[in-house]
Amino acid sequence: AAPDGSFVLLHGCAHNPTGIDPTPEQWEVIADVIQEKNHIPFFDVAYQ
């Protein structure tokens, strides 16, 4: 587990064919955990 306040790298959409796209419900859970742990999200959307 990452220490509180860590940077967290997230991908806006999956790298085909190795990744998945989280559902809206999964993004809500991800957001809740980031907020609870005071993480700093960093989104990689280079090719969007």
UniProtKB/TrEMBL annotation:
Keywords assigned: Aminotransferase, Pyridoxal phosphate, Transferase
A Pfam family it matches: Aminotran_1_2
InterPro entries xref list: Aminotransferase_I/II_large, Asp_trans, PyrdxlP-dep_Trfase, PyrdxlP-dep_Trfase_major
Domain Aminotransferase class I/classII large, residue spans: 2-48
Cofactor: pyridoxal 5'-phosphate
Matches recorded under PANTHER family: ASPARTATE AMINOTRANSFERASE, ASPARTATE AMINOTRANSFERASE, CYTOPLASMIC
Protein name per the record: Aminotransferase class I/classII large domain-containing protein
